[in-house]
Write a structure and sequence with these properties.
Length: 329
């Protein structure tokens, strides 16, 4: 079978290759085997290839934080899914044609779900959902501010916030994104800049914003921190700039602003397996219904992983780059 291997860290499309590897074999009693139907290329996957991600397994290694698959075999003690079911995998190393995992790591998705969207259910939808719920007890009518609003997480957060009766300020780099995000339900779309806090105050009627969501880092963090109210919370979940968050200490000392971080695995680990499945059941149903979705730019075969990685690293894309290892989409 085919699998993507990284032999050394460096430029993703130079260090990743599609290789022939042995089949995974039959599952044990507590395992299952699934064919990988599609996987997305996420920023964290690019960082993994470069060696700048938090995880650095022994090389050669296989990237891939998420995928969607179809079960082909299940062990005797695996009862929540059966052959033919669609699943997502809570473990990594998903850039391959076939995976064998523990049964508890496979989360079922509803039959009939769009496979392209299903490939992106594992990380971004629960990230947006839990950042809205796990830090601040927001009430209907309150405001949330986020940057990277045009990202997959940002778009999902707009929709999920709207469902809860929350209003969103969405910070972007390009003004032409305003119409698209407004159509999703964004209440305000502003271009980032040094006077951001003043423009946010004007757009919201000087509302007290108790939650900010930030994924740029560097000075962008400082600009977002200045937009939240005294005793507000800013959640940092990524650094598109590659820089650590920066913010003036007066925001913490005198205004009581809290700067904290989010990593999906850490927050899912606080929940029981049944609670995790319930989260994905809700999100999967919404994806199937079309309530939640993310744009897809292109789909590549696994043999073209290097070109797929080049494309994923370029600006100006119109959505995620997906790979279909078995030609399913």
């Amino acid at each position: 079978m085919k699998q993507v291997l990284v032999d050394r860290y460096g430029t993703p499309w130079e260090v990743a290759r599609c290789a022939e590897v042995p089949d995974v074999g039959a599952p044990a009693a507590d395992e299952l085997v699934f064919d990988v139907l599609a996987f997305p290329i996420n920023p964290a996957d690019l960082w993994f290839c470069r060696g700048s991600y938090r995880l650095k397994p022994p090389l050669p290694a296989t990237p891939g934080a998420e995928c969607v698959g179809r079960v082909v075999a299940a062990g005797a003690s695996v009862t929540h899914v059966r052959p033919g079911d669609l699943v997502i995998n809570l473990q990594r190393e998903n850039w391959t044609q076939r995976r064998k995992v523990k049964g508890d790591d496979a989360i079922p998705l509803p039959a009939g779900i769009d496979l392209r969207q299903a490939a992106m259910v594992r990380i971004n939808p629960p990230t947006a959902m839990l950042m809205l719920s796990d830090f601040v007890d927001l009430q209907r009518g309150e405001w949330v501010i986020q940057n990277v609003a045009n990202s997959a997480v940002g778009r999902l957060l707009i929709v999920l916030a709207k469902q809860r009766g929350l209003r969103t300020v969405n910070v972007v780099r390009r003004p032409e994104l305003a119409a698209e995000l407004t159509a999703l339900g964004a209440d305000s779309v502003l271009v980032d800049g040094d006077d951001l806090a003043d423009r946010v105050a004007a757009a919201t009627g000087k509302a007290e914003i108790r939650l900010g969501v930030e994924a740029v880092g560097g000075a962008a963090t400082a600009r977002l921190v200045e937009c939240v109210a005294n005793d507000g919370t800013v959640v940092h979940y990524g650094s598109m700039s590659g820089e650590d968050p920066v913010a003036g200490r007066s925001n913490f000392i005198y205004r009581g602003v809290k700067l904290t971080g989010f990593m999906l695995g850490r927050f899912l680990a606080r929940r029981t397996p049944e609670q995790v499945r319930a989260i994905y059941a809700d999100l999967g149903a919404q994806v199937k219904a079309g309530t939640l979705s993310a744009p897809v730019d292109s789909v590549y075969p696994i043999d073209d992983i290097r070109e797929a990685l080049r494309h994923a690293d370029r600006g100006g894309r119109h959505g995620k780059i997906l790979v279909s290892p078995n030609g399913a989409i």
